[in-house]
């Protein structure tokens, strides 16, 4: 399967503002379609001796939903984002320190987790922490008739047979994180992976665009 | 991470300029920062920013069994969450004195002032009532959290609409928003908390910034009157609902009176702004315009250190007065310096004086080795 086959896709319009919060070392607010997420990064910080690590920085990720009591799905999102960030951040440069990433959901119209991963990446870029590569998350859904829908809406997710989310790195476009729900065939998974990989280019282009506009102000 | 301590020089400087009638950000004593209210796509979701302080509030509701002593009243629950997003010194999922204090003040202001019609939240007496939960999330802490959080809570409560219910025999049917129009919460009055920082014995600063809050709470060595933070809860009818003092005892009785008078004016203006925001949001929703937090993302605000984002400025200084073109040409301007009207003239030993210029200025020599 060749990536050039799927050139007819479009992602939801993305809108981003960096430095949204004045107290954090880095912050970003990202809207992907109607889903909006706010992320802040603080670090490297001085932390308790018990949680310090000799080899690398201790990464702490907090995901906070808009309202209601904290629940298990928030913890799941935290662990996905933490594992993704751990591969991206060059933690060995900051031993015995802590890095705190806080994510606040503002609107959820589907694709909350992919938006949160992308927003966290932008906040990390803004904070100036050293990173091996940037990451881009893309999600897709498999509907009942076996068609793949890139970046599904809230209703499409509810009626989908399966949803798949992939996170790619910027250098070799290798898969960093993948998580799925529902039942699907191996072929569908491979197709979804290739399509999302091709679509991740658009996200990386968007990152470049955002960073370029902000660099103009500095320079 | 531990909170960064404020240095002595910062403390003395802030105290000195405030005693001299100035504030770090160029405001006058009674001036508040810019208030902005943005609503989300759901009912009862709003983000309030007071200057750079930002608070998100979300109201949610569920049907629960009422309390036994109040069988016909709904329940309201306020939960304040200060995450490390607000400032690095806050720890995640940990109740600190700050959180508890903020939560208690909001409860006092909204539960104890009885501004919400709890009886209208009753569905079946002794069996089913609505329970409203207000989640207040602090996004950015740049001082005066109480005022910002209270405006956010009030805006969220006033904006919130709960689903309609119908009773069929013993059954209660909850209609979704698409089926039946939701019902707004009944508010008898709109109380807001306004914060004043007390400096010395008679200076009142409204809407203190982070550094002003910290400086007014710290103790002074020279035995002068200590300051404190005075929170006044005031509704739109100019009735006080809450008074709270943190810090040193007040030396001057008039200061409370002065704060209440000022709060009554300010409280009304805040409620007016809030009501106007809710009405304009309602009319937009009636026109089926989609309202979303994505609207607050702008491209104007790019770097936290440019122009309008300068947090410290002179009293008569407006960052917007400078247009970007003149900034670029600054270097050229330097060369066309107008000749000075004054001239430096040596007078007494080791001193010089400014005198109206007679001719072109030239270098002068002041001998410093002269004997007295």
UniProtKB/TrEMBL annotation, chain A:
Belongs to the RNase PH family. GO terms for cellular component: cytoplasmic exosome (RNase complex); nuclear exosome (RNase complex); nucleolus. This is Exoribonuclease phosphorolytic domain-containing protein. It is found in: Nucleus. It comes from the Eukaryota. InterPro entries: ExoRNase_PH_dom1, ExoRNase_PH_dom2_sf, PNPase/RNase_PH_dom_sf, Ribosomal_Su5_D2-typ_SF, RNase_PH. Keywords: Exosome, Nucleus, rRNA processing. Coiled coil: none annotated. PANTHER family: EXOSOME COMPLEX COMPONENT, EXOSOME COMPLEX COMPONENT RRP46. GO terms for biological process: nuclear mRNA surveillance; poly(A)-dependent snoRNA 3'-end processing; rRNA catabolic process; rRNA processing; U4 snRNA 3'-end processing. Residues 11-129 form the Exoribonuclease phosphorolytic domain. GO terms for molecular function: RNA binding. Pfam families: RNase_PH.
Automatic annotation (TrEMBL), chain B:
Keywords: Cytoplasm, RNA-binding. InterPro entries: ExoRNase_PH_dom1, ExoRNase_PH_dom2_sf, Exosome_comp_Rrp42_subfam, PNPase/RNase_PH_dom_sf, Ribosomal_Su5_D2-typ_SF, Rrp45. Pfam families: RNase_PH. One of its GO terms (cellular component) is cytoplasmic exosome (RNase complex). Its main location: cytoplasm. Residues 31-163 form the Exoribonuclease phosphorolytic domain. GO terms for molecular function: mRNA 3'-UTR AU-rich region binding. GO terms for biological process: exonucleolytic trimming to generate mature 3'-end of 5.8S rRNA from tricistronic rRNA transcript (SSU-rRNA, 5.8S rRNA, LSU-rRNA); nuclear mRNA surveillance; nuclear polyadenylation-dependent rRNA catabolic process; rRNA catabolic process; TRAMP-dependent tRNA surveillance pathway; U1 snRNA 3'-end processing; U4 snRNA 3'-end processing; U5 snRNA 3'-end processing. SUPFAM superfamilies: Ribonuclease PH domain 2-like (SSF55666), Ribosomal protein S5 domain 2-like (SSF54211). It is found in: Cytoplasm; Nucleus. Belongs to the RNase PH family. This is Exosome complex component RRP45. It comes from Pieris brassicae (White butterfly).
């Amino acid at each position: 399967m060749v990536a050039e086959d799927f050139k007819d896709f479009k992602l939801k319009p993305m809108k981003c503002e960096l430095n949204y919060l004045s107290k954090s070392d880095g912050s970003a607010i990202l809207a992907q379609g109607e889903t909006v997420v706010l992320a802040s990064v603080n670090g490297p910080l001085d932390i308790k001796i018990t949680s310090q690590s000799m080899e690398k920085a201790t990464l702490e990720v907090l995901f906070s939903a808009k309202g209601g009591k904290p629940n298990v799905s928030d913890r799941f999102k935290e662990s996905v984002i933490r594992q993704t960030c751990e591969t991206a951040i060059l933690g060995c440069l900051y031993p015995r320190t802590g890095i705190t990433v806080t994510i606040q959901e503002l609107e959820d119209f589907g694709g909350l987790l992919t938006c949160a991963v992308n927003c966290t990446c932008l906040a990390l870029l803004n904070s100036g922490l050293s990173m091996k590569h940037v990451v881009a998350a893309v999600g897709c859904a498999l509907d009942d008739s076996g068609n793949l829908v890139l970046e599904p809406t809230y209703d499409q997710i509810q009626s989908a047979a399966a949803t798949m989310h992939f996170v790619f790195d910027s250098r070799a476009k290798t898969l960093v994180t993948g998580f799925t729900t529902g039942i699907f065939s191996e072929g569908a998974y491979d197709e979804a992976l290739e399509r999302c990989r091709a679509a991740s280019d658009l996200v990386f282009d968007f990152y470049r665009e955002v960073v370029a506009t902000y660099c103009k102000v500095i320079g | 991470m531990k909170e960064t301590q404020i240095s002595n020089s910062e403390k003395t400087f802030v105290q000195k300029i405030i005693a001299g009638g100035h504030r770090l950000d160029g405001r006058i004593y009674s001036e508040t920062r810019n208030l902005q209210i943005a609503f989300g796509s759901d009912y009862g979701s709003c983000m309030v920013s007071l200057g750079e302080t930002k608070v998100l509030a979300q109201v949610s509701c569920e049907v629960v069994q009422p309390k036994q002593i109040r069988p016909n009243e709904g329940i309201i629950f306020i939960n304040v969450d200060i995450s490390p997003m607000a400032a690095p010194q806050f720890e995640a999922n940990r109740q600190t004195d700050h959180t508890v204090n903020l939560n208690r003040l909001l409860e006092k202001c909204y539960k104890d002032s009885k501004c919400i019609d709890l009886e209208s939240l009753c569905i079946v007496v002794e069996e089913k009532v609505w329970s409203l939960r207000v989640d207040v999330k602090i996004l950015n802490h740049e001082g005066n959290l109480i005022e910002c959080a209270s405006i956010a809570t009030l805006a969220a409560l006033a904006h919130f609409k709960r689903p309609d219910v119908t009773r069929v025999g013993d059954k209660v049917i909850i209609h979704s928003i698409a089926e039946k129009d939701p019902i707004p919460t009944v508010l008898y009055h709109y109380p807001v908390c306004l914060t004043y920082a007390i400096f010395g014995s008679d200076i009142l600063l409204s809407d203190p910034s982070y550094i002003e809050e910290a400086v007014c709470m710290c103790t002074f060595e020279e035995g002068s009157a200590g300051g404190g933070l005075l929170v006044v809860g005031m509704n739109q009818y100019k009735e006080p609902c809450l008074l709270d003092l943190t810090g040193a005892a007040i030396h001057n009785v008039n200061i409370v009176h002065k704060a209440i008078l000022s709060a009554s004016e300010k409280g009304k203006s805040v409620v007016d702004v809030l009501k106007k925001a809710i009405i304009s949001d309602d009319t937009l929703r009636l026109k089926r315009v989609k309202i979303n937090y994505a609207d607050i993302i702008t491209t104007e605000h790019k770097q936290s250190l440019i122009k309008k984002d300068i947090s410290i400025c002179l009293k008569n200084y407006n960052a917007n007065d400078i247009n970007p073109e003149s900034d670029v040409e600054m270097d050229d301007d330097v060369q066309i310096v107008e000749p000075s009207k004054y001239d430096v003239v040596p007078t007494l030993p080791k001193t010089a004086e400014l005198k109206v210029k007679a001719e072109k200025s030239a270098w002068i020599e002041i001998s410093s080795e002269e004997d007295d």
